[in-house]
Structures are given as C-alpha cells and as structure tokens.
Specification:
The longest helix is centred in the N-terminal third of the chain and has 41 residues. The C terminus is likely disordered. The protein has eleven helices and no strands. It has one domain. About 35% of the residues are buried. By secondary structure, the chain is mostly helical. The radius of gyration is 21 Å and the shape is globular.
Length: about 350
C-alpha cells in the first residue's frame, strides 16, 4: 500500500511535468506570434496553469510532513530510551538544511547559470524569444530566472514550514492564503506572490498527510465530481480574468481529480513510464525550455514543420532528451554534481544505489 501511494505521487508529478512542458511550448509559440490565446488556446492554457504547479507543491508538502512525523516519532522513541539529551540543536537542524541545499538550492543556481549562458549565446539568433545578459545572475538571490521561480518558491516553502513547524499546517496554509490575497493587488515583485502561492499548496500537502485526507478521496463518483468542479470553477475564473493563482476553488477540485487519477493509473500498464517521468521531473524542468527553443527554431527554419508537428515534436523532445540526460547522469554516478540525483533502481535497473540526498 505504501509503495502504491508513493507511486501515485510520482505519477502525479509525471503527468504534471508533461503539462508544464505543454504550457511552455504553447506560450513560446504565442510569444513568437504563431498562435493566439484569444480563443481556445488561451482557455486550455488557463486550465493547465490552474492545477499543474500546485501538484508539485502538494506532493512536496505531503512528503515533508511524512518525513517530519517519522522524525518526531523516532525522536520520541530515543527520548524514551534515554538517548536524547539536548533537544533541537544545530546537529538536528543540519539534516534538514543540507539535503535542501543539495536538491534545491544547488540545481537552482547551477541551472539558472546554464540557462542564462545559453540565452546569451543564442541572443539575436531567433532561437530564444528574449535576449539575456550574464549580469542577470547577480540578482537570482531575490529575482529568479524564469522558469526557476518554482525551485526558489519550493525552497522557501520548505524553509518556512520548518521554521514554523510549531504551528499547524492548517494555520500556515490560512496565513499564507491571507497574505496571498493581501499582496496580490500591491506593487510587489511577482516572486513575492509566488512565494505565498507555493506555501499555500505546500501546506495543503502537509495537511493531507497530517489529517489522513487521502483515503476518503477514492471513488469514481468523487473523481467525476472533482473533474466537473474543476472545469466549472476554472471556467468561471477564466471568464472573469481572475489571476490563475487566485482560482483556488478550481485548483482544489483539480488537485482532487489529479491525485485520484494518479491512484488509478498506479494500477495500470502506464505505471512504470509515469513513475519514471515523476522521478525525473527535475531534469525535465531545468532543461526543457532550452530544448523547446532549439527545436522550435529548427522545426520552423530548417524542417518547415506545420503547427501540429511542431507542437508534438517540441513536447516529445523536451521530455525525452532531459529524461535521458538525467537517467544517464544517475547511471554514471554524476547526477549529484549536476543537481539531478534521483532514485531509479526500482524502475530501470535492479542494482541498489546509495541513498539519495533528501530521502
């Protein structure tokens, strides 16, 4: 049961990363003037953005809370055995901070540098939609390079939840949501809104674990109702041009439908490839923009592809190439150095690997 539940989380991430790639393919074409978001493309884009990034925050929050509660239980057991002496010290804090620096902060810095360097090299070539300067690296500590706002916001969500762990996940979620509403109309940088947005759904993931809310959400009727609620609520929000980060009702319905579907797929023949995608989301996330930009230019200027072939080609390559890089990096034992370490032995090969940082 535990394996199936974790498979469901990986599957949810696998589906969500495909939606991330799709969204960036379509937005790249829209910025390039190849499609318009005034009609159906804009509507589909809104539906996708209503739910795909919250999936990652919820999964991370769920796993964080599970790890936190296990650590508390182990600490209580040690205390009962007379082994715990000094309470929470720097020695107990390090196991939290070091893995997050390895699995989030390092990939953020490394791949922001790679992304900007590639943009500088390709500036003026027509491959990228926006030119860039390496001087931009000086500001990534407070102004993330798109699309790496997610890694930045996720690190802050982990840190805030750790520092506020004496308070319930419900209280943190409500506080973050109140701040999200409060700052939305203020002249603040977009990343500030993104930080509260991420913390809301990270805390919801914690709440789902803490309150054991995953169990009651397993029925075909609930899946149908959640899907209908998602489409209806998101459509209303779209009609009123509501910022997608505030389309909360639609997002919550979409998340319920998303995770129920993932649970169903955990028992299907698609389980293994979707779990693999879910395990390799970091590689796909940090590399897909460059793959999309390159293939879009090649597809238009050299291959003269039509729009459908261009879209499908971009999505396929932007998933397959980064996934292959991450698999190879893990196989060669260099994944840790490029921020792509993950557990693949149970889905690709049987050889037992060492522990993954952060697990």
């Amino acid at each position: 049961m535990q394996t199936q539940r974790l498979d469901g989380l990986d599957i949810a991430k696998g589906i969500a990363i495909i939606l991330v790639v799709y969204g960036h393919v379509m937005r790249g074409l829209q910025v390039a003037g190849l499609i318009s978001f005034n009609g159906v493309w804009g509507y589909v884009d809104y539906l996708v953005y209503t739910v795909h990034m919250p999936v990652f925050f919820v999964v991370s929050g769920f796993l964080y809370e599970g790890g936190r509660q296990r650590a508390l239980a182990e600490g209580e057991a040690e205390h009962r055995d007379g082994m715990l002496r000094d309470g929470m010290t720097g020695a107990t804090a390090r196991p939290f901070w070091k893995p997050k620096l390895v699995t989030l902060a390092w990939p953020y810095v490394l791949w922001s540098t790679v992304h900007l360097t590639a943009q500088v090299i390709m500036s003026g070539s027509g491959v990228v939609n926006r030119d860039a300067s390496l001087g931009r690296l000086a500001s990534i500590g407070w102004d993330p390079v798109s699309p790496f706002w997610f890694l930045y916001a996720l690190f802050i969500a982990f840190a805030a939840s750790y520092l506020l762990q004496r308070y319930s996940a419900r209280l943190v979620a409500l506080l973050a949501f109140a701040l999200l509403i409060a700052v939305h109309r203020l002249p603040v940088p977009g990343i500030v809104i993104d930080l509260f947005y991420g913390l809301v759904y990270f805390s919801i993931g914690r709440l789902v674990f803490a309150e054991r809310l995953a169990g009651p959400l397993r029925s075909a009727v609930t899946l149908g109702l959640a899907t209908a609620g998602f489409v209806l609520a998101a459509s209303i929000a779209y009609d009123y041009a509501l910022d997608v980060r505030l389309a909360t009702v639609g997002t919550l319905c979409g998340l319920i439908a998303f995770f129920m579907l993932s649970t169903i797929l955990a028992h299907s023949p698609l389980r293994r490839p979707l779990v693999l995608l879910g395990r390799c989301t970091m590689g796909i996330y940090v590399m897909h923009i460059l793959v999309i930009a390159t293939f879009r230019a090649v597809g238009l200027k050299l291959l003269h592809l039509d729009l459908t072939a261009l879209i499908l080609g971009c999505i396929a390559l932007a998933v397959a190439l980064p996934l292959s890089v991450q698999v190879i990096a893990n196989r060669l034992g260099i994944a840790r150095f490029v921020g792509l370490q993950t557990k693949l032995d149970d889905v690709l090969w049987r050889r037992r690997q060492g522990p993954v940082a952060g697990e």
